[in-house]
Write a structure and sequence with these properties.
- This protein is mostly helical and 128 residues long.
- It has one domain.
- Helix content is 79%, strand content 0%.
- The chain is rod-shaped.
- The protein starts with a helix and ends with a helix.
Amino acid sequence: MSASGAREWQQSVSDYANVDRQVTQRKQTKVYVNHRWVTPGEKFLYVVFGLFVTIACAYTIHFSSSLDTMNRDMQQLEGQITKQQTKNENLTYQVKELSNPDRILSIAKENGLKIQNTEVKQTAELIE
């Protein structure tokens, strides 16, 4: 190799070394900012919102369940009331039938009672 070739080669090697130093310095002086997708404050807000939604859903389910139970109980009570009203109407009808004056007179005659010039009144009128 000639002297000029050696100098060129040395020059190119020193140029590469300078470029390497400059790149290394740039890498060292560059500050990389780590951008997070979600900040800690946003995470906290998401957790609080999630808990709020969960509690609201649980309360709604509990409320609708207790309302359904109460509606079923009311329907059962209404059924019992209807049955009792029917029984009461039947008993009222039976009272009217049994308090018929002709029936009372016939039973009295069968048992040997003598009714002389008296008026027989219905028992319902006496009770009221």
